[in-house]
Queue: 2 jobs
Job 1
Amino acid sequence: MPKTLPLMVQGTSSDAGKSAIATALCRIFAQDGYKTAPFKSQNMALNSYVTLDGKEIGRAQGVQAEAAGILATTDMNPILIKPTRDSESQIVVNGEPYGNMKAFAYRTEFYDEGLRIIEQAYQRLASTYERIVIEGAGSPAEVNLNDRELVNMRVARLTNAPVILVADIERGGVFASLVGTLQLLEPEDRDRVIGVIINRFRGDLTLLQPGLDWFEEYTGKPVLGVVPFIPDLWIDAEDSLILHRYQGQRETPREIDIAVLRYPRISNFTDVDPFFVEPDCRMRFVTRLEELGEPDLIVLPGSKNTLEDLQFLRETGLAAAVNDLHHKGKTYIVGLCGGYQMLGEAIHDPAGVESPLQQLDGLGLIPMITTMEQKKTTVLSRGEAVFAKEKLTVEGYEIHMGQSAYSRNDFPFIQMEGRTEGYCQEERQLIGTYFHGLFHNDHFRTLLLNAIREKKGLPPITDRPSFVALREQGYDLLADTVRRHVKLDTIEEYMKAFQEKEVQI
C-alpha cells in the first residue's frame, strides 16, 4: 500500500475557514482517486455527528468524511470537548463520554492520556488511507497554551505533516494576522508552514496583489491561493462561533417567519439550515423577548445544558411568550432534543449530569418528565411518521443524556421498531422529538411549511429544493473553487517531500 501522505490545515484564528478548506481538500483528493480521511485530534464544538456505530464526533469531521465519500469513524476525531458551563466541559473520547472536566484539570491531568489516544487514532487511519487531511483548532500561536496543546503544531510534528496557514480576509487585518502568527511560532514550526491561503476574498484581485507580493518577500512564505467568498454554501457549521453568519435573513421579508430560540448553550443548530434555502422562509435567531414577535414557527433547538438554558428562557420572558403563542394557536412550535425536553412538564438532574440545578419545571406543553442520566444515547434513527394525513419515512440522529417518560401520549410522532418516539399534536401545532435532522427530511419539511401556508391562506409550494442534494453540490462547488484558486501541485510536492524526512515526535 502507498505511504500515507498527511496535510494539515491551521488558521490564524477560529472561524478562519479551516474546516471549509479541509473539506475541499478531502473532496479533491477523493475525486483524484486517493482514499482520503479527515482528522482532527481534539475538537471543541456543540454541533456533533453520530457515526454508523452510534458514536459521537465533531460535526465538521462527519461532513469532511461525507465530502471524501467515506463513512465517518471516531478515529477521525478521537477527542471531542462539549462545553456545558463556563470552564467546564464534557469530554468525549473515541465517541463515548469520558467525564466532565474543568479546563485546568483537562490541561494538567489529561494531557498524556490525550496524546496517547490521538496517536493511536491517527495510526489506525494511516494504516488504511492514502491521504489524511488534518485540521487544527483556533490558532497555533496561543503562546500561553502551546507547551501542552493537543491539536495544532504538536499534531503536525507527531504526523510529520506540512502545514497550510489559513486567514479570513473578511475580518480585516489579514496580513497582520498572518505575519503575527508566523512570528510567534517556534522556528521549527515556522519551517513546517509551507504557505498560506487567504480565504473569503471579495473584489478585484489586482488590488490585493501588492499585498501578496509584500507578504511573500517579507516572510519568505508563498501565497498558495486566494479563495473567493462563496455565497449560499450549505455545509454544516462546526459550532456557535459561526452563528453571526446566520443573521442575514433577519430583515428579509418572506411569507413564513421562523424564529429559532438562541439560548447560551445552543447545540446542533444546523438542524434549521434547510429553512435557509426555502424561497418563502425568513429565519431569525432570537435571544431577547422583544425580538420574538408572532412568528409562524418557533424552533427550540438542542442544548448542552438544558436546565440552565430553560432557566434562561424563563428569565428572559421567552418561555412565557412561547406558552402564550401556543395557547392562542398563532404559532407552530417544534422542540428538538433539549428543546423537546423543555416542552415537557419538568426536567430532573439529580446527579448533576449537566448542571448543579436539580430540577426545573418545563413549559408544560407536553405531558412528560425528563430525567438526566449518566449514559448518553447516540444513535442513527429511522421511523415512520404521520403528518398532514400522509405517512412518510423520517431519518435523523439522537444525542441526549436524558430519558423522557410520558404520563400519557395520545399523539406519538414517529413509529420505530418496537417503540414510538416524540409527540405531534397537529391541531395544537406542537411537535417534539429527539430526532436531530428532522427538517433535513425534504418531504416532512414540505408538509410542515405547506401546512403553515394553508393556515395563512397561501397556496402550497410543491417543488421545494432538496437540501441533501444542495449539500452534495456544495462539496463539489467548494472543491472546484479551491482547484481554480489554490496551487494544488505545489501542495502535493510538499506532502511528498515531508514524508521523505524522519518523523519528529
Job 2
Amino acid sequence: MSALTKAKGFKKSKSGTYLSMAATAFGAVGAAKQIKKARAENDTLRLVDAVVTAAGIVTGLALLYRELKRLGDDDVLLG
C-alpha cells in the first residue's frame, strides 16, 4: 500500500476520526465565547445563533463518535 493510498484513507481511520473530533470540539470554544458575549450584550438573536451553533457541534461530535464505534477493528491505517 503506497503512502498516497494511506493518506487518502486517513479520514476513514481511527486517527482521522479522533482528529476530526478534536477539531469539532475546538469549535465549542468559539461557541462558548459567542454565548458569553451575547449574554453580556443581552443580544437574543446572537444568543440563539450561538445555541444553534453549539447544537451543531454536539451533533457533529455524536456522528463522529458513531463513526468511531463503527470503525472498530477495520482501521485503514493498521491494515
